[in-house]
Write a structure and sequence with these properties.
The protein contains 21 helices and 22 strands. By secondary structure, it is α+β, with helices and mostly antiparallel strands. Helix 5 packs antiparallel against helix 6 and helix 6 (370-391) packs parallel to helix 15.
C-alpha cells in the first residue's frame, strides 16, 4: 500500500507535468508565439509550406467572398475538393497567416460535420500551420468547408483610401500573393507544387468593379462571379476591386485602369496583341482564353504579376513612348513559363523566371530584330552584375541558380538572379544545341510535356537529355550542370552576343567616366542614344568605381545633355537618381525622395533606400521618410526596405 508522502509526491509530479504540457500546447495553439529560430524546412516538398501534397492535394476551391472596405477584411467561405493520394489520412495541413478561422466542417451527402482544428508552429514572415483533424480515416477524396476572415494587415492585400487613388473618390483594394502571401488571403496549400481550379463569387460595393485572375461568368451591381477552369497555383489567385474601367486593345485583350489613365495605358500597351501572337508562335497554343492588363496603383511592388487572364502591371511602365513594354512581353511569356509549367517550389524559381526572361527576349527579337534581342540580354547581364555586387553582396549563396531556402523566406531570396542568370543559361544551351530553329521546337515539347504540372530543375535536365541525346550527345557532355545550378556569382559562360547597340552606350559611359567636365563639353561623342541605350549608359555610370569629374556640375551637364529631366521613362529616372546619391548631391535629396515616394516598385525603391542608408548625411532622413510612408507599401515591400535600411 502506497504511503501518504509518496502519494502526494507522485500527485505533485503529475500536476507539474500537466501544467508543462498545457503551457506548451497553449503556446503552440496560438498565432502570437515567438517566431521559430530553428533552421528548418516546413515540409518535405516545399521548405516554405506546411502542406503535404505527397499525401493530399486540393483540386478545386469554391470561394464566397465579401469585400469589407470599412474593416479592411475579406470574409466568407472556401469549399475545398481534396484528392487523397495516401492510403488514408486523419489530418489535413494547410498554410495560414493572420487568418481568423470561424468554422471548419467536412461536407458529406448534404450534411456538414464540424471538425476539430488548431493553428500552431508560427514562423516569422511565413505564417502558421492549420491542422484539421478529420472525424475518421479518409481515403479517395473529401470536401472541406472553411469559414474565415482575413486580417486588416493581411500580407496579400493592400487597402487604399480614396485619397490614395487617382480619382480621389472611391477606395481600392488589390492582392499580391506571390511568393507565399496567399496563406493570408485564404487557408491553402500555399506551394506551387499544388494546382487547382476555382470559382469565386464576390460581393463588393455596387459602384466598384471586381476583377479576378479568371474568366467572368456573371456580373450584377455589387456581385461578380468568376471561374478559372485551368489549374493554377495559390500565388496566382488575384483580386482587385476599385473604380476601374477598360478599353479594348485586341481581340482577346482589354486594359483596365482608373479613368484618369486608361486611355494613356491603352496607347502605351497597344502592341499587346502582336506580342501575344508572337509568344504563341514561339511557345504553342495560348490556353487562357483572355489576356487583360490591369494598371495598378503606384504602391504595387513589382513591374508586373502574371496572374492568368489578368496581368497586373505597374504604372511606372507608362513612359509615353512604349520603351518599357518589354515587361508586357515578359508577363505574356509567363502564360507558358510559370503558369502552365511551374517550379515545384521557390528553390527552383529560375524555371519560372529564367525561362520567362529567355522567351521575353525572343519576343523582342521577333518584333524588333536580333540586335534588339542581344541588347536586351546584355542589359540583363548589367542588372545581374549590379544585383550580385550590391543586393546580394552579403548573401552569395543566393546567387546560385538553384538555392537552398531552408529557413529562408522566398521574399528574402528574391533577386535578378533567377531571371537573368537563368535566361543566360538557356541562351547558352540554345546556342550549343543548334540555335533557335532547334531549340524552339524543344521548348514547345517541354511546355506540352509538363503543362499543368510543377517540376524541378532535374526534370528539365532529364527532358533536355531525352530530347537531344541522339543528335547532340557530345555537346551535352560540355554542360557543367553543377556549376550552372549550384555555382555562385555571375554565369560561368557568357554567350557570344552581338554588342553593336551596347558598344555605343558603353563608349559614351567610358567617355563620361574618364574625362573632366570641361573635356566632356569640348569632345562630346556625336551619336544620339536611344531610350534603351540611355538606360544602359546610366547603368554603366552607376557601376563605375571612380568617375573623374563627378560633381554637381557634372550631374547637371549629364541631365541637360541627355534630356534626363524631360523623360517619363522610370528606368532612366531610377538610374539618374542613383547617380545623384553616388555623387552625394544633397541638394537633390528632395527629388530623390519624391521619386521613391511616387511608386513603391521594389526594383527602384530598394536599391535607392539601401544606398541612402550608406550615406551618413542622408541616412536619418531616409529612415524618417520610410517610417512616414511604409504603411502605404505592401508588406513585402516595407519588410524588405526595412531590412535594407537595417531597421526591421
Amino acid at each position: 500500500m502506497i504511503n501518504r508522502r509518496k502519494f502526494y509526491f507522485i500527485a505533485g509530479v503529475i500536476c507539474l507535468a500537466a501544467i508543462i504540457w498545457y503551457s506548451i500546447s497553449s503556446v503552440n495553439y496560438h498565432r502570437n508565439l515567438q517566431p521559430s529560430t530553428v533552421r528548418m524546412r516546413l515540409s518535405k516538398v516545399d521548405p516554405s509550406s506546411y502542406s503535404t501534397p505527397e499525401d493530399e492535394v486540393i483540386k478545386n476551391i469554391d470561394l464566397e467572398w465579401n469585400i469589407d472596405f470599412e474593416r479592411h477584411v475579406v470574409s466568407g467561405t472556401a469549399v475545398y475538393t481534396i484528392k487523397i493520394l495516401a492510403a488514408s489520412v486523419e489530418t489535413i495541413f494547410l498554410d495560414v497567416y493572420d487568418i481568423t478561422i470561424k468554422n471548419i466542417a467536412v461536407k458529406t451527402a448534404g450534411t456538414e460535420i464540424p471538425v476539430n482544428y488548431f493553428v500552431s508552429d508560427y514562423v516569422k514572415n511565413m505564417g502558421s500551420k492549420l491542422t484539421i483533424e478529420l472525424p475518421t480515416k479518409t481515403s479517395g477524396s473529401l470536401v472541406l468547408s472553411i469559414e474565415y476572415e482575413t486580417s486588416p494587415k493581411a500580407a496579400a492585400l493592400q487597402w487604399l483610401t480614396p485619397e490614395q487613388t487617382l480619382g480621389k473618390t472611391q477606395p481600392y483594394m488589390y492582392s499580391q500573393c506571390q511568393a507565399i502571401a496567399a496563406r493570408s488571403l485564404l487557408p491553402c496549400q500555399d506551394t506551387p507544387a499544388v494546382k487547382f481550379t476555382y470559382t469565386a463569387t464576390v460581393t463588393h460595393p455596387k459602384e466598384l468593379t471586381a476583377l479576378l485572375s479568371a474568366i467572368r461568368v456573371n456580373s450584377t451591381a455589387g456581385r461578380t462571379i468568376y471561374e478559372q477552369k485551368i489549374p493554377v497555383q495559390s500565388y496566382l489567385l488575384a483580386i482587385a476591386v476599385g473604380a476601374i474601367v477598360s478599353r479594348q486593345i485586341g481581340p482577346s485583350s482589354k486594359v483596365w485602369a482608373e479613368e484618369a489613365i486608361v486611355d494613356e495605358a491603352a496607347e502605351e500597351f497597344s502592341k499587346t496583341s502582336s506580342m501575344l501572337q508572337t509568344a504563341s508562335d514561339i511557345c504553342g497554343t495560348y490556353v487562357w482564353k483572355e489576356y487583360d492588363l490591369l494598371v495598378m496603383p503606384p504602391s504595387f511592388p513589382f513591374g508586373g504579376m502574371e496572374n492568368p487572364c489578368l496581368t497586373f502591371v505597374t504604372p511606372t511602365l507608362l513612359a509615353g513612348d512604349k520603351s518599357l513594354t518589354n515587361v508586357i512581353a515578359h508577363e505574356i511569356a509567363h502564360s507558358w513559363t510559370g503558369n502552365l509549367v511551374t517550379n515545384v517550389n521557390f528553390e527552383h524559381f529560375w524555371l519560372n523566371e529564367g525561362f520567362t526572361t529567355f522567351v521575353e527576349a525572343k519576343i523582342v527579337g521577333r518584333l524588333d530584330g536580333d540586335l534588339a534581342r542581344d541588347f536586351h540580354a546584355i542589359q540583363g547581364l548589367q542588372q545581374l552584375k549590379d544585383c550580385i555586387e550590391n543586393q546580394l553582396a552579403d548573401t552569395p549563396a543566393l546567387t546560385k541558380l538553384v538555392v537552398d531556402l531552408t529557413s529562408v523566406s522566398p521574399d528574402d531570396a528574391f533577386s535578378s538572379v533567377p531571371y537573368k542568370k537563368g535566361a543566360t543559361f538557356l541562351r547558352y544551351l540554345e546556342d550549343l544545341l543548334g540555335g533557335p530553329t532547334s531549340f524552339e521546337p524543344f521548348l514547345r515539347h517541354y511546355f506540352n510535356k509538363y503543362k499543368y504540372q510543377s517540376i524541378t530543375s532535374d526534370d528539365f535536365k532529364a527532358t533536355l537529355y531525352e530530347y537531344y541525346r541522339e543528335k547532340y550527345e557530345k555537346e551535352l557532355e560540355q554542360v557543367d550542370w553543377d556549376t550552372w545550378f549550384y555555382g555562385e556569382g555571375m554565369p560561368p559562360i557568357i554567350p557570344n552576343y552581338n554588342t553593336t547597340l551596347a558598344d555605343i552606350a558603353h563608349k559614351h559611359a567610358n567617355f563620361w567616366i574618364g574625362n573632366s567636365v570641361d573635356q566632356i563639353k569640348k569632345d562630346m561623342p556625336p551619336e544620339k542614344l536611344t531610350t534603351l541605350q540611355k538606360v544602359e549608359f546610366l547603368s554603366k555610370l552607376n557601376e563605375a568605381q571612380n568617375i573623374v569629374g563627378i560633381s554637381s556640375e557634372w550631374i547637371a551637364l549629364l541631365e541637360t545633355t541627355h534630356d534626363l529631366n524631360k523623360t517619363k521613362n522610370s528606368e532612366i529616372q531610377f538610374a539618374f537618381y542613383r547617380l545623384c546619391v553616388k555623387a552625394r548631391q544633397f541638394d537633390r535629396l528632395d527629388d530623390i525622395l519624391a521619386f521613391i515616394n511616387s511608386n513603391f516598385r521594389m526594383k527602384f525603391v530598394r536599391p535607392i533606400y539601401k544606398e541612402l542608408g550608406q550615406w551618413s548625411e542622408a541616412r536619418d532622413i531616409a529612415i524618417a521618410n520610410y517610417n512616414k510612408v511604409k504603411d502605404q507599401m505592401m508588406a513585402v515591400c516595407s519588410n524588405q526596405v526595412g531590412k535594407d535600411l537595417g531597421v526591421a
